[in-house]
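(Structure overview)
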Amino acid sequence: MIAEPTAIDTSQGPAAVRVHAPTAGDRGTIVLGHGAGGALGSWPKDLQSVLSATAHGWTVVLVEQPWRLAGRKVATRPPTLDAAWRELLPVLTGVPLPRPLVVGGRSAGARVACRTSPGDPEAGLPRADGVLCLAFPLHPPGRPDRSRAPELATPVRLGIPTLVVQGSADPFGSPTEVRESLAAELGTGEPATASLHLVEVPGNHSPSRDQGLVTRTVLHWLEQLG
């Protein structure tokens, strides 16, 4: 990481953002959040791999949630994560950052991005032009009854292009589970929709051992955005 963190005050405490400018062009902006655990300042390989998009004209912003910046080991509840995200994103886009705007993240960060993707014009929260989910946690391990399919369905239902990069043996939900659960949630009877692109990669809920595949998948999907 070479970008210096910048603090943004939220009602949940200060968050930190690292803005990585594109090395050429002005293609758009990707704003990414981290998962629910991990050491302070540690960014998983799949989130770091998205930084390669800066060579293709994308501004990449890594967001460190207030709980993590405060040194806690476990994430706070989803409403507090969403509250911080809803407050800091308008600050970022007020710079302004170029569109299209892709929001996303790893695991819990992907959930936040999905839930907030519709935007809120009255609060100044922009609607996402794309959602990037790295290891979407469809359900807690061994608890398929506690499905988070409604969260993932939020951008898909609105026709927002959504990429899910999922480990083949992810205990939080395999690619097949994601497809089937989303189809059931949307009531389409189909395993996928026009706005969803799901790619299976080797591994579990940790960053895939094939980061080259992750990087190529993300870059190819970004190129398809309007």
Remarks:
- The chain has a mean pLDDT of 90.
- Residues 78-93 form the longest helix (16 residues).
- The radius of gyration is 16 Å.
- Strands lie at 6-8, 15-20, 28-33, 58-64, 101-106, 130-134, 162-167, 196-201.
